[in-house]
Specification:
The chain has 16 helices and 14 strands. The chain folds into two domains: 9-80 and 331-430, Aspartate Aminotransferase, domain 1; 83-328, 3-Layer(aba) Sandwich (Aspartate Aminotransferase, domain 2), CATH 3.40.640.10. The two termini are 14 Å apart. It has helices at 9-17, 19-28, 71-74, 83-95, 104-116, 131-146, 183-187, 197-206, 222-235, 255-259, 285-288, 297-303, 315-328, 331-355, 379-392, 410-430, and strands at residues 50-54, 57-60, 65-69, 124-128, 150-154, 189-192, 210-215, 238-242, 265-268, 279-283, 359-361, 367-372, 395-397, 401-403. It is of the alpha/beta class. α5 packs parallel to α13 and α14 (331-355) packs parallel to α16 (410-430). The strands form three sheets. Strands 4-10-9-8-7-5-6 form a seven-stranded mixed sheet, with helices on both faces. It has a four-stranded mixed sheet with strand order 1-2-3-13. Strands 11-12-14 form a three-stranded antiparallel sheet.
């Protein structure tokens, strides 16, 4: 039986302190569905509106200061407004934001990816404008290269918002998580439980139409990833790592470097472009050869994968990406972020035990998700209540996740742990936990 949440101090205090955000959200509801431009920014009863950010902190329209754990949806390993990125952007903006031509910065950006990411070494790079574009394009590339139409993914894995990515997102896994998905798309994606090698082996043994297996390596472990690598190699199935989130965060070369397993193809975004829009596919040259131009009319019409894109390799994204990767290629960057996340994990665990709240904080490297095992209200409702309570303590998580940058220090950790402890108390008092 659902517990009715008592109207209390969280809503009252937030309304008092964030009146500007509430007013802007009321305006935005007349412009955007739900008043937001990204589902992850939706909050009840109103979203947070910010004006500027620096390092690990950001400020809202009412002047409130927050330790930020949204992290640009995971794109800001170096924190907000890193001087090297700001300088590169200002210099390039004065020279042109879209040249309608190839340029040296895109070449250097791609070279850095080849130098840093294991699956790009000796291979090729194809830039896109986002992570969703990268995963959508990589599935098309895999089907074109193999001549097979079906792709296998893990139940619950998020690969963006395109049609194919809607499959196997939430139970029942044979149905999309969105309306408007054609039947043919549904039939082209199959799925298996995550981290179950036997299930994947059985599926691959039972079918000969699998073009690729796409995997998110977040927390997967070397043993599992190597087993998947072996299974796909033995059966001539392409292995794709979706490293949109994990790329350059686990290690300079991403989760594939961290775990020591190299896929055939990798999708990248977020940190890749230093906080600007940008994504990429990288991998074996023979596979990315499907993008090559040719005078062979039959090839051009029936074998090639065309790929236009107004903002592919955009100069601003390129220079921001170069500035970011030149720093992120030093493993000390990832180590600083991970150390800060470890501080959060320890402090949160102590607070949960002290307040008698059933839950845990986990996650690998600099990603620290929190979960509550005995909530008294539905999870979606609790997510909004939790984030609101954390904001009152001057910290803004990405839902239940804390995405940590290399700029978070001890002061931020201490403030966030205190905010978490206070949030637990407020949520208990109102009957949410």
């Amino acid at each position: 039986m659902a517990v009715t949440v008592r109207a209390g101090q969280i809503d009252r205090l937030r309304a008092e302190r964030m009146a500007g955000s509430a007013a802007l959200h009321a305006r935005a509801r007349n412009v955007f569905p739900d008043g937001v431009t990204h589902d992850g920014r939706y909050m009840e009863p109103f979203a947070l509106y910010c004006t500027h950010a620096q390092g690990p902190r950001k400020w809202d329209v009412d002047g409130n200061e927050f330790v930020d754990y949204f992290g640009g949806h995971g794109a800001l390993l170096l924190g907000h407004s890193h001087p090297a990125i700001v300088e590169a952007l200002a210099r390039q903006a004065a020279r042109g934001t879209h040249l309608g031509a190839s340029h040296e910065a895109e070449v250097r950006w791609g070279e850095l990816v080849q130098e840093i990411v294991p699956s790009a070494r000796g291979g090729l790079v194809k830039f896109t404008s986002s992570g969703t574009e990268a995963t959508m394009l990589v599935l098309r590339l895999a089907r074109a290269f193999t001549g097979k139409e079906t792709v296998c993914k893990a139940n619950g894995a998020f690969h963006g918002w395109h049609d194919y990515a809607t499959m196997a997102m939430v139970p029942p896994y044979d149905e999309p998580n969105s309306a408007g998905i054609p039947r043919g798309v549904r039939e082209s994606i199959v799925s298996v439980p995550p981290r179950e090698v036997a299930a994947l082996r059985a599926l691959l043994d039972s079918r000969d139409d699998i073009a690729a297996v796409i995997v998110i390596a977040d927390g997967a472990g070397t043993d599992y990833l190597q087993a998947v690598r072996n299974l796909t190699s033995e059966r001539g199935v392409l292995l794709i790592f979706d490293e949109v989130v994990t790329g350059f965060r686990y290690a300079p070369g991403g989760a594939q470097e961290y775990y020591g397993v190299t896929p055939d193809l990798t999708t990248l975004a977020k940190i890749l472009a230093g906080g600007l829009n940008g994504g990429a596919i990288v991998g074996r040259a023979e596979i990315l050869g499907r993008f090559l131009q040719s005078e062979d009319e039959s090839w051009a019409r029936h074998e090639r994968v065309p790929h236009p894109g107004t903002y592919n390799g955009n100069p601003l994204s390129a220079v921001a990406g170069i500035a970011c990767l030149e720093i992120a290629r030093d493993p000390a960057t990832q180590e600083r972020a991970t150390a800060a996340a470890n501080g959060l994990r320890a402090g949160f665990a102590e607070a949960l035990a002290r307040r008698g709240v059933a839950g845990k904080v986990g996650g690998p490297v600099s990603l620290a998700p929190v979960s509550f095992t005995e909530p008294k209200i539905p999870g979606r409702k609790l997510l909004h209540r939790f984030r609101a309570a954390m904001q009152l303590g001057g910290a803004d998580p990405s839902g239940f996740n804390f995405i940590v940058s290399a700029t978070h220090g001890q002061a931020e950790i201490d403030q966030t742990v205190e905010a978490f402890d206070n949030a637990l108390v407020m949520l208990q008092e109102e009957g949410s936990l």
